[in-house]
Amino acid sequence: MKSIKQIIISLLIITTLGLKAQVAINTDGSDANASAILDVKSTEKGFLPPRMTISQRDAISNPTSGLLIYQTNGIAGLYQYDGSAWNLVGNNNIPSGSQAGDMLYWDNNEWVNIQAGRHGATLQIRGGVPTWVSEPLPLPFIENFDTQTQFDRWEFVVGGSSNDTWQMVSDYSGNSLDGTPFAFVNSDELGAGSTMDEYLVSPFIDASGVSELYVKFDIFYNNLSDDEYAEVSVYNGVSWIAVYNSSEDNGGWHAPAHLTFDVSEHINDHFRIRFHYYSPGWNWYWAVDNVSVTENSGK
Would you say the pTM of this structure is higher than 0.90? Predict the structure, then answer.
């Protein structure tokens, strides 16, 4: 008889819930809000969602969009699944950093990550953008990328679909520009489905006090598609000015193109030069060497 009573009570509860299609959990006996399928009310206790580690969370099979859990390790907090990834609730799509010391600034549209500056650099506002500034180097500025110490003076901005970016190499399949190491960015090694949007930016250079200024460098740019390009810009103290942009082959292994640009109109005490490689797909590569900034046009 007891079992029959339990079955009847269970059926009544199920029937009642099915008719109301709402559940109210409280201590005052009030009905659920008309807009809620579940209405939990308390002035003394909170709602505690399932608590788990990152590995336990990631082991959930086929999580549905909107699923909530409380993550107990890593960056602990309430996480929601958006259909493709778990996101910290309240994070407002703030980008994560790539290394210790990274910071964020608001560009009037979204949060932008600023990579950590080098030792001794100061953060200044230039052209409305927070910029790491190191003590500028004097003229002439000569960079042949022959040592790692030289290469490490440059700033790298990593974009695209991977962390692959500019690197210093001694050769590429036995090839070089002049038999010495060089700066190199390579889309070919990434394969199909890859993208690159990579910047190589010089240290600051004090070009004040001169009447003429020239930028010179050697390159082998191997282009594959119309959408792929190599661009060189200089910093005039306020903004970046493009002096070279190409979607065509230029130079070759052991026979680089020697390029010279008169940038006298952009003289300032925090001059910089920037190499930007953009590849929206699987393409070729760009090699750069023997960069110089001088007050004369001679080699």
Answer: no
